[in-house]
ethanolamine-phosphate cytidylyltransferase
Amino acid sequence: MGQRDWQGGEGVVKVLGAMAMAAAMAGVAGQILGLSPLPDLLQKNGKKKKKVRVYMDGCFDMMHYGHANALRQARALGDELVVGVVSDEEIKANKGPPVMSMDERVVMVKSVKWVDEVIEDAPYEINEEFMNKLFTDHKIDYIIHGDDPCLLPDGSDAYAHAKKAGRYKQIKRTEGVSSTDIVGRMLLCVRDRPNETPVHASLQRQFSHGHSDKGSSAGAGTRVSHFLPTSRRIVQFSNGKGPRPDARIVYMDGAFDLFHAGHVETLKAAKAMGDFLLVGIHSDQIVSAHRGPNHPIMHVHERSLSVLACRYVDEVIIGAPWEVSKDMVRLCFIT
């Protein structure tokens, strides 16, 4: 059994009594003992297993489904997920000014259904002092980050201390989306305007990475997207549960483009009106027809994942119609 296997959040091995003796005879015990100073995942004398608490931090600016997927993966490595939201000052010092305020970013993170606790004004670097505070005050077992490098202005690794302590775990970054990519899509929306300034043209080239949406098979208004939706990803985000027979079902629809704190508060209010919240996500064609050719920024599957990640949402209709017809009511609410 390797160290990675022993740490796995979904497959913690329970070694009790005679099983422990058998493992020792097989030469496994030495590897287990060699994992120190990692926290013990098993309790002695048959007591209840200690919950594994994992920590992940980030700026979470212009939060998108890639952020939500990272939090989903982090939560799968433990029993409770604590998320640190980096302060405005720390973001400015290390990356430049954030688009969203601290309050908006906290609302977004708290709305993700895989998040259990939030630490506001977290530092950008996991320094030794903050790391020890996580271990002692917040009872954190592991610190999580994506497989993309996170470097400080001096070129050093922001997670070096956690790695040295042996309390670091890594998840896979979600390909096809980033905050920079989204800014680029927004700039592409106005690239054909006749009064484009040199500054705007420069920004558009910087953020769009030279991509063009010509020939795109996406919706008429959807800009450049590298996201490839799969049924597996949708299942990962879904609750997988339907309403109870006696549940009061609430339906709400919309574009939910560039999912933000205002959307979250609206969905929270809608969920409070009943027991099961069903959200209709309008198709790219419908959004474009009602809002203009430069909309939506995010295509329908991206918008659906952002909504599905919200803790107040129970189910979504992907490509919901503009009008709520009798057939739709019969299909979604009766059968």
In short: The longest strand covers residues 80-86.
